[in-house]
């Protein structure tokens, strides 16, 4: 699989094109609408109390609108979900699961990181007084583990820095050789070529002959110590061994360093990602009605009528409003009886959502820090678990919760089809190939398959390039008195900033319509 194929199959082709400047980047800046908190007589029914719904209600409240949010779950936040002690969930067709983590430990089961340039997300954290800390996305001390039938480095853990340093060295050596042989078409002066080669030597740590023979960046076979012991630099891996062992597989690509939306620095709320929805929930108070499952979305022209099931009483209820903002994930929207236009229903039918699984594993001690010197960041593998995330919160503490799996597509579908016990077994067995301490230090785990989570049925909307052109514009227009918001209605799918900016866009359109009379 080529890198391009990997990106496209991961549902990130649009993000990659935007990052490269081929498509416009969606803005993510604070609102600048005129404020008027006096009641204006208009009632807005908002479907869903995730970030899009709550931020829309928050902003509309500043403009004087009367908002009510209907949320099917017994909690707010939607896919901004932090699993803690006592959290319970029953997947579609699955068994009930109750989290057994110790008090104070958690897994960010949904969104987990905030890019520093997602200004609107950062602005809301500032405005809602949600403190943030660094999210460790990159760590050169993390491991790569390639499960392969051949290769000297196959089926053993190697440090990310070792592969990075050696591949950078071999690549720059290759380019330097091509320059020497005038094999590259370089419209540069001789002086500029000399400067370029000098940069290649520095970038790849090449010797005077422009050869890569190893580097302290790879690490040391014998570390420097007090007294007479000088450090001895480790021998580099052979390029043949790196490639043959499968360490150039897309699973090991430096997405976290080069993809625009994962470039350092990334942030996270102190105490868990749910600190953001909790802050909104506190501000909105009784405007939010939980355990209200939407059954029908009807147009009354003018106005809307929403029929829902109050799961607390088991009774059907209905609510009327002048306008509606629908933030429901598209897999949920297509299962609801409605008067929505054919275009909207087509978008709901044909925009798939990412299949993705995660598992949080609590261990008796933070062996990744104590034994392996890993503080934050990610280890990567081509096994089914795909990634292991190391928590930044609680460093040097007695225990910790690793995100022991984060996968996508067919792998996630396969893993999601397993029972909870089988998922745990898989995560422990594969994780132990990277960290042998797993078996001895394991305490408990909590896993989830987002495509089987009620009221979500997927991780995020995945637009192909053609679907983005055909179906996405429908999400940016109102359908009579119904407006749409959510990450699927933005140019930043899968990110909180997408939910926030889509809410802003819907609020702006609705308010301009009302203001125009």
UniProtKB/TrEMBL annotation:
GO molecular function: tryptophan 2-monooxygenase activity
Domain Amine oxidase intervals: 51-508
Catalytic activity: L-tryptophan + O2 = indole-3-acetamide + CO2 + H2O
GO biological process, one term: auxin biosynthetic process
One Pfam family in the UniProt entry: Amino_oxidase
Keyword Nuclease (UniProt): no
UniProt keyword list: Auxin biosynthesis
SUPFAM superfamilies recorded: FAD-linked reductases, C-terminal domain, FAD/NAD(P)-binding domain
Family listed: Belongs to the tryptophan 2-monooxygenase family.
Record-given protein name: Tryptophan 2-monooxygenase
Annotated organism of origin: Siphonobacter aquaeclarae
Organism classification: Bacteria, Pseudomonadati, Bacteroidota, Cytophagia, Cytophagales
